[in-house]
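Human: I wish I could look at a protein chain and see how it folds. This is the protein in question:
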Amino acid sequence: MNNNDEIISYLTKLKDEKNLSISEIARRVGMAKSAVSRYFNKTREFPLNKTEEFANALGTTPEKIIGIRKPDNIIPVTKTVKIPLLGEIACGDPILAEENIEEYIDEPVNYLPSGTCFYLKAKGNSMKPTIPNGAKVLIRQQPDVEDDEIAAVLMTDSNEATLKRIKRADGVIFLMPDNPEYKPILVNKDNPARILGKVVKMVIDF
């Protein structure tokens, strides 16, 4: 399976071969030009849930974008695993403790990243338009993320998980909303938090 750099390199090659502009690709996939531009300049992870749209726009297949190689005469059998959808997370308990799990979602193993994964449901509009209210977001469990990546963060005083973009400045962590109508959240001793994992995929089923 291709990593983000390999996916973007392949898409860029197709874009140049077909002499397509970012604006035209954005029109074909039904997304904002600014969002598509961030994928191509690698400041934002490529959205795997949009693979089919990008494949159609660039005249290729989702398998070639993602890097799944299979002989033409073999029909793949896709296995699924049950990924937990978490509700309220009890502070101090393991993330995947029984009492934290609301339900399970079947997910094809082909598109799962390595490591432990779980789903959270986005609440509110602070991450619009990137992540709309009610979207289910796949998280890869990890204790830290890079700057400008979106993370699931547990606010330890309230036991609530929030989705925010991570920014660091002078040793201080800021939880940044994508919606300019919302204010950043400062993480400090009076407002403690810990990173639960990195956002790797979003599912909208409403």
